[in-house]
Structure formats: C-alpha cells, structure tokens
Amino acid sequence: MGRAPILVSLLAIATLAACSSDRPGAPTGPVNAQVVLAPGQSADVAGAGIRLRFVGVMGDSRCPGDALCIQGGDAIVQIEVVPAAGGGLTSYNLHTGSMQPVRHDDLTIALVELMPYPFSSLPPIVPSAYRATLRVTR
C-alpha cells in the first residue's frame, strides 16, 4: 500500500466538505412561495426548510381607506420562523409602512399584503379577521 489510497480518501473528504452547507440538511434550491395566514396559523414553506407562523398584528395605525391622512400609517405584523429540522424559533416584525423584507439565513421573507384594510365607516378590525400574505424567496 502506498500513498494513493490515503490521497484518494483525503480528496473524497475534501470534496464532501466543500459540498456541504453551513447548516447540515439545509435546502439550497430556489424558493418562490407565497402563503396567506390568519393569526396563530402556521404553514410549512415548500423547499425552504422552514415553518412560518403569523403571530398577529401588534398595532395597526394605517390611514383608513375613506380618510385623508398626512401619513400613511403602519401596521406591524409579527411572524415566527421555525426550522423544519427543529431548533429555535426566530421572531420578526414586518411593517406595512415600509414593506421592507427580512432576511432569515439565505431566505428573504416579505409581507405582500395585510387584509382587511381599515375604513373609518366600518367597525374596528377584530384581531382574528386579519390575513397576512407572505412571500418567501431564495
């Protein structure tokens, strides 16, 4: 036996290490998924390796659709992200005022829409009536 078997073994180990992700078993393909969730509702995001949960709306100061306002206002949508493989959850706040997405590892999570929209001529929105449309991309 010479050095050849050792070199082949070292090459195989180096190749496997180069192909592995920083998170073992983490999906790496493209993702473009959209989900609509009610408060308290969760959904697995296909191909992303995560579960999204819409915790609720933490505040809704959006300008009513039938009013004139100096500012557009903001609603704060709280979500939780849990890895499908287990592990701790991470909470994020998404704002309708900026519509700025958040980054979770290699994923981008964006609030697309929060419904219903407030109107001053209608009763206040009850928390259970909200629906958040979220888009996850990689």
In short:
The protein has 138 residues and is mainly beta. It has one helix at 4-19, and strands at residues 32-37, 42-45, 50-60, 75-83, 90-95, 102-104, 107-115, 131-137. It has a single domain (26-137), classed as Tick-borne Encephalitis virus Glycoprotein, domain 1 (Sandwich), CATH 2.60.98.
What is the fold's blueprint, element by element?
Elements (H helix, E strand, L loop, with lengths): L3 H16 L12 E6 L4 E4 L4 E11 L14 E9 L6 E6 L6 E3 L2 E9 L15 E7 L1
Antiparallel strand pairs: 1-8, 2-3, 3-4, 4-5, 6-7, 7-8
Describe this structure in words.
The protein has 138 residues and is mainly beta. The protein has one domain (26-137): Sandwich (Tick-borne Encephalitis virus Glycoprotein, domain 1). The protein contains one helix and eight strands, in the order H-E-E-E-E-E-E-E-E. It has one helix at residues 4-19; strands at residues 32-37, 42-45, 50-60, 75-83, 90-95, 102-104, 107-115, 131-137. A four-stranded antiparallel beta sheet has the order 1-8-7-6, with no helix packed on it. The chain has a four-stranded antiparallel beta sheet with strand order 2-3-4-5, with no helix packed on it. 13% of the residues are buried.
